[in-house]
Design a protein that fits this description.
CATH class: Alpha Beta
Strand content: 15-25%
Number of domains: 1
Number of helices: 9
Shape: globular
Low-confidence stretches: 1-28
Amino acid sequence: MDQEQDQDQDQAQGQGQDQVQAQAQDQGKGYLLDNRQAEAGTRFDALAALFDASTFRHFETVGIDEGWRCWEVGAGGPTVSAWLAERVGPRGRVLATDIDVSWTKTAAEGVAGVEVLRHDVARDEPPAGPFDLIHARLVLVHVPDRDAALRAMFRALRPGGWLLIEDADPTLQPLICPDAYGPEQELANRLRRGFRELLQQRGADLAYGRKLPRLLREAGLVDVEADAYFPIASPACDVLEAATVHQVRDKLIAAGLATDEEIERHLANIAAGRLDLATSPMISAWGRRP
């Protein structure tokens, strides 16, 4: 396929995905943290600072090596794809996909060895593989048809290939301030409850992380293991929370879950450094296709 045909196909796919996304948002079920919002890049940077080291540790656990073919699902920021591309080298392949690649394409520019493709893991056929490693972080918790997405990823694995899924479990540890010793922390936790309610309204499974080991086994994977990680105080947690609140403030107010004054007070508390902010536990589960 020549470049002009490829561009036309990408544009047509993009229009179709935009229509699907717009319909979902009209029904109140669209992705709450839209990649096209200005704060998306800030959130990606904060998530990388918080979780990349743990993700890379899991890549090392499965034994990633030169020449591997890797699929990064719901890529978002460029750091994971770039790390994979460096590790697999010029003989390997790294494919980064997302339902909305408007930010991913820009972020991946200049990252050698990374191919970006618009793709809906729950709706579209898996990209051409097979893959030695497939990874998704903070993706499936937001996907309405998670079972279909897992099946698609399993089909795309080579025999012996590894699937690593990392997803949050907000109900396992629901507080953004576990040490809720004062009114500032109580306000932060109340706004976090509102944020979780918005996620649930859009179909997120807030107890998904803990299910991953069982789901990977049921999908047919073997040698399944899992662990959990979450920071309880970090400058990156402050950055992530501020960016998240900015992204959802209008929706919180419209739903009657917070007032503008409460949000401004919470943002001021974050800026003043008076909160020890945590994240939801990140459950990482990995298994191998027989």
